[in-house]
Amino acid sequence: MQNDLIAALSSSRLFREMAPEMLRTLACGAVTVSAQAGEHIFHTDEPATAFYLVKEGQVRLYRPNHEGNEKVFQVVSPGDLIAETAMFAEPCRYPLSAQAETAVCLYRVTRTTLLDLTRQSADFAMQLLATMSARIYQAVNRIDHLTIGNASQRLVLHLIDLSREQRSRRIHFPVSGGALARQLNIAPETLSRQLNHFKRTGLLDGRNRDWVLLDVDGLHRSVGLPPPSRKESEAWHDTDLGSDLFGCCNFR
Asked: What is the sign of the dihedral through the CA atoms of 103, 7, 180 and 94?
């Protein structure tokens, strides 16, 4: 288990610059935990004594609002970290609830171990700060996207974000359609209908989790968003594309 965790940690953005001996120390006290779909790993405001790295499955991060509904912030997949930034807060409590979207297996790493290593290495502390700054920037963008009132605009912005992350106009949804709908605060039927509309109008092609952005400028225009920058447009234009790849989609 320890060797697998070290390999997983070294592949993560937060720990990839960490010295091998520090990775071994971090992994030494770690354990694996499992949960079935629907089970919670932790709840909002519980004392945060550990962070997690997803080994298998998907975890939904959400917070209940004042009306009792759930606001989904993110769905994380294998290789993603959970609650690592919360480890440095005082008092240290989980800001979100984590619920298994599917059957999951996670590595649990104690907060004490992480704080001890941070105190020992200034270089590691600086790496943590740089990575957390990037995460804050991503979170601001995500909040900006989720507060857009138009569901179709939220979907297009998410498609563009996936294209940037995957460096291609051929994109793969890392989560199920139902999970994606919750993440974007869109009804599953609305998501299916909008994707099929984009497909009928020649802006997208695909089905289920695999799609191709055929007309990026057209996607923006169709939902009233400004076009992407010239540099981005040229990058997308150079991407090899296929056509008429798949049938229709239907998310439930």
From this structure: positive
Q: Report pLDDT digits (tens) over 187-212.
A: 889 999 999 999 999 999 998 889 99
**Which strands sit side by side in the sheet containing 59-64, from one edge to the other?**
40-42, 97-100, 59-64, 70-76
The span from the CA of 52 to the CA of 12, in Å, is: 12
Beta bridge partners of 193: none
Tell me the per-residue pLDDT of 43-101, one tens digit each, with 9 for 90 and over: 999 999 999 999 999 898 988 766 666 777 778 889 999 999 899 989 999 999 999 98
Neighbour-count burial for 162-199, b at 16+ CB within 10 Å, e otherwise = bbeeeebbbbebbbbbebbbbbbebebeebbbbbeebb
Please give the distance of CA 139 from its chain centroid, rounded to a whole number: 10
- Which residue, chain included where needed, has tokens 């605009």? 153
